[in-house]
Amino acid sequence: MWIDTHCHLDAPEFSADRAEVVVRAVAAGVGMQVIPAVQAAHFEAVRALAHEQGVSYALGVHPLYVHRAAPDELEQLDHALSRWKDDPRLVAVGEIGLDYFVPGLDAALQERFYLAQLKLARQHGLPVILHVRRSADGLLKGLRRHEVCGGIAHAFNASDAQTTQFVSRGFALGFGGAMTFERALQIRHLARTVPETALVLETDAPDIPPHWLYRTAAEREAGLSSRNEPAELPRIAQTLADLRGWSPAQTAAVTTANACRVLPRLGALAHG
């Protein structure tokens, strides 16, 4: 079985055919998904969707959404984590983190939300799903201040030294469509060399399409879709298998075991 550890199944890009997307994923062998929320307004819908489709979810405020957050957004998160603390499908606090790639974002506001959500994850005993984009050092600084019980560093790309620090703190590293591009040299290097216990797979659907779905701006303007979806995970995984010299079966077994270890509630769902 494959686990897509990061899929925004609630995204509007799936509104027209969400049920069919799930059917295709299951047919491809993707038996479990993690749907991370990005803002408090989505918490109820994300939870309902996870229950409806038999998958799992995480609750958090994404760094790209903190500028539009309600004054009580963090309080809403705390309340939701308390309200659904016994929900076996709630597997993490996420998607949280820092984004230093998109211009014009308020770094101090991002950091405030990130640190507060680390504290909530620690308080509620949940792992975290981290957004990492040119922000590995800032994320690690926060983790040193507020230790949590591990989790997943999503869409991972960092230096070897930074990678070692995340792994030493109990984090798995999410690899997806970006890994399929031959020019993604550092990502492919990491996928090849990190400890096998640190590898998990993801699509970030509908985003980060693999190379076979990539469209130029002109192609997108002409109406060609580059939408990613969970059913692409096994083909993405073949890239990891090729880089590691593994069979698809070994790749599925390793990455599934890792996902269930770093997100403990996921294990009961995946094998239940």
Write a brief caption for the model.
The protein has 272 residues and is of the alpha/beta class.
Protein described:
Belongs to the metallo-dependent hydrolases superfamily. TatD-type hydrolase family. This is TatD family hydrolase. InterPro entries: DNase_TatD-rel_CS, Metal_Hydrolase, TatD-like. Pfam families: TatD_DNase. Keywords: Hydrolase. By secondary structure, this protein is an alpha/beta fold. The protein has one domain (2-271): Metal-dependent hydrolases (TIM Barrel), CATH 3.20.20. It has helices at 18-27, 43-53, 73-83, 107-124, 136-145, 160-168, 185-193, 217-221, 233-244, 248-262, 264-271; strands at 2-4, 30-36, 56-59, 90-99, 128-133, 151-154, 171-175, 199-201. An eight-stranded parallel sheet has the order 1-2-3-4-5-6-7-8, sandwiched between helices. Helix 4 packs across helix 5, helix 9 (233-244) crosses helix 10 and helix 10 (248-262) crosses helix 11. The radius of gyration is 17 Å and the shape is globular. The model has no long low-confidence stretch (mean pLDDT 96).
Structural class: alpha/beta
| Number of alpha- plus pi-helical segments | 11
Classified by CATH, the class is Alpha Beta
SSE sequence, one letter per element: EHEHEHEHEHEHEHEHHHH
Our measurement of the CA-to-CA distance between the termini, rounded to an integer number of angstroms, reads 13 Å
**Helicity range:** 40-55%
**Silhouette:** globular
Which features characterize this protein?
alpha/beta, TIM Barrel, 8-stranded parallel sheet, 8 strands, globular, DNase_TatD-rel_CS, TatD family hydrolase, TatD-like
